[in-house]
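User:
Can I borrow your eye for a moment on a structure tokenisation matter? Would you put together a sequence-and-structure record for a protein of your own picking? Please set it down just below, with no commentary around it:
AI:
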Amino acid sequence: MKITELLTKNTIHLNIKGTQKLDVVEELVSVLDNAGKLADKAEYRKAIIAREEQSTTGIGEGIAIPHAKTKAVKQAAIAFGRSTGGVNYESLDGQPAHLFFMIAATEGANNTHLEALSRLSTILLNEEVRKQLLAAKTEDEVLDIINKYDQEDEEETQSMTGKSQFIVAVTACPTGIAHTYMAADSLKAKAKEMGVDIKVETNGSGGAKNVLTAEEIENAVAVIVAADKTVEMARFNGKHVIETAVANGIRKPKELIEKALKQDAPIYHGNGSAASSESGNQGRGVGATIYKHLMNGVSNMLPFVVGGGILIAICFMFGFNAFKPDDPTYNPIAEALMTIGGGNAFALMVPVLAGFIAMSIADRPGFAAGMVGGMLANAGGAGFLGGLIAGFLAGYLVVGLKKVLTFMPASLEGIKTILLYPLLGIALTGFIMLFVVNKPVGALNQAISHWLSNLGTGNAVLLGVILGAMMSFDMGGPINKAAYVFGTGLLANGVYEPMAAIMAAGMVPPLGIAIATTIFKKKFSQQDREAGKVNYIMGLSFITEGAIPFAAADPLRVIPSVMAGSAVAGALSMMFHIGLRAPHGGVFVMPLVSGNWLLYLLSVVIGAIVSAVLLGILKKPVTE
């Protein structure tokens, strides 16, 4: 398939007007939607933004390749946009981006489509192509330029067998469309320039290609793994392995190749199919690494909290003590709900949190130690805070054990996995949790829970204001997540009011924007008014991220407005003493709150109206 079967005249936009990343995203999504390529514009936009949050697709050299593979795409397509003045796209080289190729791949994209999409990403590495695209005056010129350089790929038969000094590499990105192949081509081009032999395996959406053989891996000087997703790592046992982000494969090929030739990398000692997460965090800051491990634990914990919390809330609808056999209101269904939700699902919350944090740090060998550490934290009263400590403690202890036990011969590798890592990891984590962590953290945990449970109205309202503002400050970013994790952690301690305030506040930004676009129509474009309708659904479903495109387009007016409304909603929820055991669900779980659910709904509505009114006052009329 030729690239120009996906890139057509009606998906080319030669005059990008926006100056920020999300402006460009909005314009190119609209181009694809107007061309009839999308089944769900809002869902596709959300998928594009989610990909950008993983890592920027601004690869440098003035190029950005936002992309998503999703069921929201009706027909595979490419949109091309150009900005003469340049856009702040948070590119890897810190320079403005001028050329934008937005790739829309269907969920069931076949190999023919994916090969064409990946071919485009490699064409853009050619400086001459970029110059010609910047100078093109018409859509036809753009298509002619792409056609000129578009050559069908031939199956690569490259082999390293028999060569004395060579490197092998693997590239992979989350979607497997663009960065995977650009990193591979960048490494191969730089290796050729340096006179170095290299073979690169690509783990793209169409599957692994140019797969490394056991003989090639055995004879390689070192291995480069430039990947933002899990790749099969066990085959690299005993080799010097450089693990880095896929972006570094594109931007720093020379540095990676030189390190590989010098064998300037640790010897990999893995046991499963996943990469060693801790070693794979090279290039990430300490804060980003900790955040990644924490979010891995939280995301795996949430299904237990949500499911268990809702079951507990339903149990209380039979009566506050209806699950107790000796209570006059006893109901066997209520008892079953409490046993399933509270006795099992909720009880697994802290162990699962700790287990998956440890697994993110140390791979599978860390999981057992983390789970046991989390259970000890739960039993010892250390709760959510203890679970956090147990997860990080177990993870890094196992990483340490891996390094300590490197002296053992490779023939005993299986013994390490089956016996030594779980035995020593569980024992060390357990002893530290029992004799060092549980008592002081349990006392702190109890003190925090007692303080929160006995807050006076004034202090409770102030806490609601703070949590509400945090939820709307970056809408899905680190500050928003910090407030959310704080609320879910308190659920394990039996403190439910902050979670209610947090959910109320998180519903406000999209609802406030939806109301504003309905009432103050002259302040919004037709496109914004259409997008505003979707925000009713997103707000009622507690999907705060629905407000992001509006905030990105006009942050100085939108962010303060939604923060104010969220702060009001959070304060009212705390003032009305509303408690929530289910940390998600929006309007659908409101009848399950402890307290008056109508007052809770009123809190959200008032907060949304405050945001809408402020938006109506602050925003300037648009001219269409």
